[in-house]
Amino acid sequence: MYELKERDGLGRCGLITIGKKRVETPVLFPVINPKMSLVSPAELREMFGARAIITNSYIIYRSELRDFFLENGIHRGLGFNGVVMTDSGTFQDYVYGDVDVSNEEILSFQERIGSDIVTVLDVFSRPDDDYERVRACVEETVSRVRNALSLAKNSYVVAPIQGALYKDLRVKCAKALAKVNASIYAVGGVVPLMENYRFGELVDVIMWVKMNIPPSKPLHLFGAGHPMMFALAVLLGCDSFDSASYAKFARDDRLLTPMGTVHLKSLDQFPCECPMCMKYEPSDVMEMEKKERERVLALHNLYIMFAEIRRIRTAIKEGRLWEIVALRARSHPRLLDALRRLGKYKRYMERFEPMSRYSGMLYTGPETLHRPIIYRYERRVFERYRPSSGTALFRKTILGPVPVELSHTYPFAQCEGPDDWDSSARRHFKRLERRFSERLGMVKYAGDDYQVDELALLRAIADYQFGLGSGDALFPKHIRIVRSKRTGKIRAVYEGEMHIVSMRAEDFFLTLHIWGGIKLHRYLRPPSYRVVVSNKVAELNREGKNVFAKFVLDCDDNIRPRDEVLVVDESDELVAVGKATMNREEMLSFSRGMAVKVREGVNEVHRHTH
Ligand code: GUN
Ligand code: ZN
User: Active site includes 252?
Assistant: First the structure.
């Protein structure tokens, strides 16, 4: 079971629950070699707080360890009481080509040793395989996953998606498996892409999968090698990875860093503050016995990988994941290609893009102009903005010209950019300016001290949030504005004693209160900005309780995370107002977690109006 907690881009912080065990995502499963581990599972837990590891059931199955693990179980066998995921042997078959076990046999073995997450024996398709071969791989993989789910009813099953670089086959595989109830989906067959730094193609492959599996299921990336690409994978919606690179690189005397790899030989100082690098000089490590050296380097590599995961989790919570990805993209040109390739998917990504973030946005380079939030602005402003007086006035920002009424809303006032614009920013600006002038006549810019009429400002923001005409519907001429004592900015808007909306200081968007909800509900035709809840729970929401995804029957397709919404019952009676935490496909897919954080239920309203 997966529950969504925080989000940025397609990246998510969430909770996977398996029986009594819980893992926080994004999560890294370090690969354990069951025969010989440089760093033991117990050490992974103690030193790095690892809650989950992955090992290969096929290696165990084919070795003298088999009976030991059958007798003791995988947890006692490895000395690890967290979540143990097992892989099936698919990768061994790809590397050595000698795997002789059936899907049924290896699944049953994984269950018998007590693995928490079992993996189907999928058929690896290589990036350079021809179409017919890949088609056959996909067909066989789909049939094996179906078979696995009918055999292993009580297990947590990973369904790998194959299809190499053929879009139609990847999509077909993902769509076929989206229909079966796997616990986790995985992107398979991409290790050769990652080993060869083919990150642009990796973006395509992950997106073809991500766009076609249920959003309520975690997505695993098999063999995500290097920490410099973790942030990118998370931004694309990967919730977990496994990696053996800490050990592989250590074997070759190489150190991972978030910016790339360095060879021990080339260092006279360690550019790192991990306990290993603080304790030793590179020359000390050079002189160690091979085994000891390998362990020291593996530990360093693990510190780097776990630190990057923590950095990514924090970035998601702070709304800075794009900025981390942009930073990492400067470590290798192929990662920059990947970041640019994301522009192709902005239409899809926009559906999951929060209305605003807790922290400001940084202009990191031309790729910023292709972020989904900018795409949203360009689409919405031409649909939903109407100048309040005869002529529109604009402000200049690096993200493009913005009507003065909207210039404080996210991301414009919250965006930091260089004073010296690059040519992409200038071109983007000119293009938008031309579009505005075609629509509204000559584009004029407001002076710095220009004061926007408050009623016009409120109406324009409401139109931008909820659609044209919403501003007139929400705000009559005789509104009463409550201002911040300290800054003088608008804080809340009333009609007499009735609270219509408040204004959020950090993003300048409006938050609905019941009186605003009633007005908006009267004006907007269904399904606009509505979340329909089951009559069975509507009474709780009327009392102000949050809406859980499980009870959402339907929802407007235009709702985005952090949008303000109308909660209604099955006969479109207003029940509550609040902030959506999910979009439509998520609300309909998740069976756990909150869908709308309710601000006010209709039954609470008397408490606010006396
Ligand atoms: N490990 C690396 N790639 C793969 C894959 O495609 N499938 C499985 N099962 N394991 C892998
Ligand atoms: Zn270090």
Answer: no
Cβ contact 98:50 at 8 Å: no
Which ranges of 330-408 does DSSP label H, i.e. alpha helix?
333-341, 346-350, 372-384
Backbone angles phi, psi at 163, to 5 degrees: 135, 5
Residue 282 Cα to ligand 2 middle (Å): 10
With pLDDT > 70 as the criterion, what percentage of the chain qualifies? 99
Bridge partners of 495, per DSSP, are 498
Which ligand gives the minimal distance to the CA of 307? 2
**What are the helix (H) ranges across 404-507?**
423-440, 454-466, 470-474
Position 303 confidence tier, pLDDT thresholds 50, 70, 90: very high
| Closest approach atom of ligand 1 to CA 188 | 6
Compute the distance from residue 303 Cα to the ligand 2 centre, in Å. Answer: 7
Average pLDDT estimate for 18-22: 96
Q: Are 559 and 467 in contact (CB under 8 A)?
A: no
pLDDT at 608 over 60: no
Among 99, 122, 238, say which to mutate for ligand 1: greatest number of ligand atoms within 8 Å of CB.
Answer: 122
373 close to 342: Cβ distance less than 8 angstroms: no
Across residues 348-374, what is the average pLDDT?
A: 95
Residues 6+ apart with CB under 8 A from 387: 393, 403, 440
How far, in Å, from the CA of 275 to the mean position of ligand 2?
A: 7
Ligand nearest to the CA of 187: 1
Cis preceding-peptide flag for 411 (omega within 30 of 0):
yes
Q: pLDDT tens, 567-587?
A: 999 999 999 999 999 999 999
Distance (Å) from CA 324 to ligand 1 centroid: 27
The span from the CA of 1 to the CA of 590, in Å, is 9
Which ligand number lies closest to the CA of residue 159?
Answer: 1
In ligand 1, the atom with minimum distance to the C-alpha of 190 is 3
Q: Counting beta carbons within 10 angstroms of the beta carbon of residue 190, is it exposed (0 to 12), middle (13 to 18) or buried (19 or more)?
A: buried
Question: Can you tell me whether residue 363 is helix, strand or coil?
Answer: coil
Nearest atom (ligand 1) to Cα of 187: 6
Give ligand 1 pocket residues (Cβ under 6 A): 87-88, 90-91, 119, 122, 124, 160, 188-189, 191, 222-223
Length of the chain measured in residues: 610
pLDDT value of position 605: 74
Of the candidates 462, 325, 444, 292, the residue with the CA atom closest to the CA atom of residue 386: 462
92, 94, 73, 93: which is closest to 84 by C-alpha?
73
- Smallest Cα–Cα separation from 496: which of 471, 476, 472? 476
- Give the number of C-alpha atoms closer than 13 A to the C-alpha of residue 222, restricted to the C-beta side: 30
Among residues 8, 67, 87, 93, the one annotated as catalytic is 87
Looking at the CA of residue 121, tell me the nearest atom of ligand 1: 9
How far is the centre of ligand 2, averaged over its atoms, from the C-alpha of 276 (Å)?
5
Computed over every residue of the chain, the mean pLDDT equals: 96
Nearest CA to ligand 1 atom 8: 90
Calpha distance 510→475 (Å, rounded): 12
**Residue carrying the six token digits 């504005």:** 481
pLDDT for position 610: 45
Q: By the 8 A CB rule, do 579 and 546 touch?
A: no
